Amino acid sequence: MGSAGQPHRRAMLTGGLAAAAAAMLSGCARDAADVRSAGKAAARPRTTPAPPTASPATAKEALARLLEGNKRWVNGNLQHPDRDPDRRQFVAQTQEPYGVILSCIDSRVPPELLFDTGLGDLYVLRTGAQAVGPVVTGSVEYGPLTSGTPLIVVLGHQRCGAAKAAYDALRDGATLPGNLQAIVEALQPAYKKALKQRGPDPVDTMIRAQAELTAADLRSNKDLSPLVKKGSLAVVSAYYSLDTGRVDILSGTPA
Q1: pLDDT band (50, 70, 90) for residue 103
Q2: DSSP H/E element including 230
Q3: What homologous superfamily does CATH list for 59-251?
Q4: What pLDDT is attached to residue 143?
Q5: Is the distance from CB of 69 to CB of 116 less than 8 angstroms?
Q6: Which residues lie below 8 Å from residue 144, measured CB to CB, with a gap of 6+?
Q7: Beta strands 234-240 and 151-157: pairing type?
Q8: How far, in Å, CA of 176 to CA of 252, rounded?
Q9: Mean pLDDT across the stretch 144-172?
Q10: 91/203 Cα distance (integer angstroms)
C-alpha cells in the first residue's frame, strides 16, 4: 500500500515543480517586457509645451484666424489650439480675446468649435436668433471698450428655430408664451426686411437679415462707432451652414 502511493507522490511533486517553473518563466517574461517598455519610453523625446498663441492685433487678422479655423472644422483637420493645461494657466490671471462672437443658443452652433479656437481666444454670447437688449449690447461692448478686442462677429445660422418661431408668430399675429415674445419683438425689423426682399425661403432670408441688421446696429452704436471709424474695430455679420459647417461673411469685412 505504501509502495502504491509513491508514484502518486512523485507525480504531484513533478507537477508542482513544473508549475513553479512556468510561473518563474512567466514572471521573467513580464519583467523583460517591462524593461523593454521602459527603455522605449526613455528613448522617446520629451515634448515641450507649445508657446502661447499670439493674438491677432487687427480685425483683418482676427477674421482671417477665425476663417482658417472654420476651414479646419469643415475639412475635419482640427488643431484644437489653446486647450491644454499650459494655456489654462497662461490665461488664468488675465485675458486678451481677439474676437467677440454673438451667436444663437442653438446646440449645433458652438463658436469655439466651429472656429476651432480655445481658452482665452473669444468672448462668446449666445441668445435666441442673436436677439439683443441693453445687457447683451453691453456685454458685446465689453471687449472692444475695455481691452481693445478688434473684431465682433454676429453669427446667424441655417434653420434657426428661434427665427422660425418668430416668423410664424409675426405672420399669424400670434403671441408666444413667456419671455419668448421678447425674441419675436426683437426680430420684427428682420421680418419686415425679409418680406421686402421676397427670397425663396423667407425664414432663411429673415435669419440673414437679422445678422446684418444686428451688426449694422452695433456698427453705428455711439460707443462702438468711433472705434469702427478709427479702424480699430470691425463688426461683421456672418451665416453658418449646418449642412456644410461653413461660415460665410455677409457684411462688414474689414479692409
Answers
A1: very high
A2: helix 225-230
A3: Carbonic anhydrase (3.40.1050.10)
A4: 97
A5: yes
A6: 100, 150, 152, 224, 227, 233
A7: parallel
A8: 33
A9: 98
A10: 40
